[in-house]
Amino acid sequence: MMKLRHLLMGFWFLWGSAALAQSPGLGTQLANELAADRDHAGAALEYRRLALAEPGAEARGGFFWASAFEYLRAADPVAADRILNRVEAEAPSLGSKTLLLRTEVALASRKWDEAAFFAEGILQSPGAAREEKNMAARRYAVAELRAGDLPAARAGLQRAPDPAPPALAAVETYAQGRDKKPWLGGVLGLVPGFGYFYAGEWANGFRSVILNSLFIFGMVNTAQHDEWGAFSAITFFEITWYTGSIYGGIDASQRYNRDRLDQAATGVNGGAAFAPDALKLPLVSLQFSF
Which domains does the chain have, with CATH numbers? Predict the structure, then answer.
């Protein structure tokens, strides 16, 4: 009786393993659910586990690719970059798909030259899909835009198989605008609030004017009444606020420039994104949105 039960359990295990092998979706269910629940770090680990359990190199590469993608979504580009090395070793056939993910990792790491290099590889690849090239053109333009090369950003967008007028318009709008000069913001900040006004931060500017005016009034009032202890305390705070006005003008100008660049990059990217079809893994089939 005991032997029969063991035989039945062994049969059930073998049957379950065979069913799992014939239905890849069952093996990826946990990883897919973790990704859907936005537990991207957990999904990355689960896809990595699946990769290590796979006997075939291509399947291992596909799961490693999904793991790298989830690491990137978990804001861990270092881990994503490391896993992509495994992808290239296991599944070189993924080619442009790996380059596309490497482009995203480089952008997340603020490595503009690397991002442009990887995107360039996709644009030059005869085997890259049309949508992959459209995505690469946008990412290339963003990398060059952030690197300060506007002509290269324009040229990159023009190499896309399908035109993207809004993306080109974003580059042109940025080119026609002007950055603020941080040094000038600091000089104008010598007059409390004016450095903020220069950068368009009107609320901060008026706050600086009001607070500095109150402290100056307090200094004058306490000096007139020979309240030198209070005068010293108020003067200390006024010096702090006054120097803050100068440095605030510098910071406000830098924030203006960063916001202007971020807005341009957002305009170039638009709604462009990609993700693997989770139901087809370990086959890496990308879904695009523009």
Answer: 29-178 (1.25.40), 182-268 (no CATH)
Confidence grade of residue 26 (pLDDT, cut at 50, 70, 90): low
Contact, 103 vs 139, CB < 8 A?
A: yes
Whole-angstrom CA distances from 245 to 211, 240, 258 are: 10, 9, 20
Whole-angstrom CA distances from 110 to 104, 115, 157, 201, 251 are 10, 8, 20, 27, 21
0.70 cut: is pTM over it?
Answer: yes
Provide the CA 14 distance to its chain's centre, in angstroms.
Answer: 44
| 153/242 Cα distance (integer angstroms) | 41
Q: Name the H helices within 54-126.
A: 57-73, 77-90, 95-108, 112-124
275 strand-pairing partners:
287
pLDDT in tens, 184-241: 999 998 999 899 999 999 999 888 888 888 878 878 878 788 778 777 887 887 788 7
